[in-house]
Amino acid sequence: MNNAQHLGRGFQALWVLLVTLSPLTAAEVPPEKQSVLDWLSQPQTLEKFGRISDAVWSYAELGLQEQKSSALLIKTVEEAGFTVEKGLAGMPTCFVASYGSGKPVVGILVEYDALAMLSQKGRHPKQAPVVDGAPGHGCGHNMMASAATAAAIAVKQAMEKHQLAGTIKLFGSPAEEILVSRPYMIRAGLFKDVDVVINNHSGSGFSTAYGVAGNAMFSVVFTFRGKTAHSGSAPWGGRSALDAVEIMNVATNYLREHLHFTYRMHYVITEGGEAPNVVPDRARVWYFLRNSDDKIEEMYARVVNCAKGAALATETELAEVRVLAAAHQSHHNKALAELMMKNIELVGMPAWSEEDHQFARALQKELGKEEKGMPTKVGTLGKPAVVFTGGASSDHGDVTLVAPTATIAFPGIVSGALGHHWSTVASGFGPGAWKGVNAGAKAMSATAIDLLTRPDTRQAIRQEFEEYSKTHPYKSFLPADAQPPLDFYEKLMQQYRPAMEAFYVE
Ligand SMILES: [Zn+2]
């Protein structure tokens, strides 16, 4: 047990003092970087951004419905002196906040959308929804919302104080959970002058990685149309759109055997008729198709064939194939990741309180995981997998192909908590999460300061990127006529928002 763990409750001021003094006053830290670290180490800064994280957590807004979350972040950066462009790339909750002028332009990505069905009480180690069935922050995007915003503001203040040249931009990116915003933001030209991009994700460890990671993904809704009929007296007069969905799903499940093992494929039936006594004339199935960049388009074409075959077999019509999102794998820049890792080591793992460890152990016990509490050491620089086996996806993948990008994974979520699960929602709230947000903001802002003040480092990062781009030129997977699905989560959010409002933390 380390010193900080002994402090416990009621010694917050001493804890903040320790954080302020330990490794951040090291002689080699340049004054510009010391400025961002000092500001973020102030207890009022930690609390302010902790509360923003908790507020976004309580709004738990689904993709493209993040009105309150984006408004809070915009208000925060505007008050700090940023210029904000709003409603960009056809998305009302998309924004870009800028400070400074000219080159270099350093970007920070910020996400703030939640996941359906994951409502859960904060810091509660057993499953207990706040509002049954409502959305929840099961991927920690509330923490990322606040950490990235705090980082951008810290950098702006240091730029002002030390008269640093260049621009800091915060890219407000909606609907990451359904991989929507970044391909559209790139298509709208929002990243065209950006030199380097800092991405971030909350988790249980504190580290970064380089190389190719995650799967590319197509998010597609297939709509079939048939004919209604009385299911009892004259079913032969009808043509069931639900039958088409079911046959399509049987076909894609047989297809699995013949897909390269890096694939992932999952679906939900979003419309399948209203009553058994009316043959459904409309049915919909929503697919996530994932594979590597070089295999995803072919996989998509084969799944479309399954849909066409299902329509033929059922004498229904494949009325619409709507691509909601299409995103690349992540291609993380090595030189940037190495720079991030140095800053992560400089910042160090937060000094968790005994209460943080207790909550972590209680949650770990509930999940049947090793009861080891919160982590005490930062991680190491992650390398690309020797054999890529596929995985999850993020639409920041497209950004990695238009500007050198890497991701700082910062702590706060209990290790052992599961992604897209109530245990992550429970972890991402309250003082333990605040410390993670603060550590993430420090690592991001310290990296941004290096990028603004060290032309050689920037040059090395850019050079690696230019070289890589020769063999990996960017081409969007989005069909030319694709539009952000603004309506997609509208009804679901409307259904839950009134009940959730009573529990907003503001
Ligand atoms: Zn996420």
Please tag this protein with its features.
506 residues, disordered N terminus, 2 domains, alpha/beta, Aminopeptidase, 41% helix, globular, Alpha-Beta Plaits, binds zinc ion, four-stranded antiparallel β-sheet, six-stranded mixed β-sheet
Secondary-structure blueprint:
Elements: H1 3-7, H2 12-21, H3 31-41, H4 43-59, H5 67-79, E1 83-86, E2 95-101, E3 105-111, H6 141-162, E4 166-173, H7 181-187, E5 196-202, E6 211-213, E7 216-225, H8 241-255, E8 264-271, E9 282-291, H9 296-314, E10 317-327, E11 330-332, H10 334-347, H11 354-366, H12 396-400, E12 405-410, H13 422-427, H14 431-453, H15 455-471, H16 490-501
Parallel strand pairs: 3-4, 3-5, 5-12
Antiparallel strand pairs: 1-2, 2-4, 6-11, 7-9, 7-10, 8-9
Helix pairs in contact: 3-6, 3-14, 4-5, 4-6, 4-14, 5-6, 6-14, 8-9, 10-14, 10-15
The structure holds zinc ion.
Structure characterization notes:
The chain is an alpha/beta fold and 506 residues long. The protein folds into 2 domains: 3-211 and 329-501, 3-Layer(aba) Sandwich (Aminopeptidase), CATH 3.40.630.10; 216-326, Alpha-Beta Plaits (2-Layer Sandwich). Helices cover 41% and strands 17% of the residues. The chain is built from 16 helices and 12 strands. The strands form 3 sheets. A 6-stranded mixed beta sheet has the order 1-2-4-3-5-12, sandwiched between helices. The protein has a 4-stranded antiparallel beta sheet with strand order 8-9-7-10, with helices on both faces. Strand 1 (83-86) and strand 2 form a beta hairpin. Helix 8 crosses helix 9 (296-314). It is globular and about 80 Å long. The two termini are 35 Å apart. Residues 139, 141, 176, 201 line the site of zinc ion.
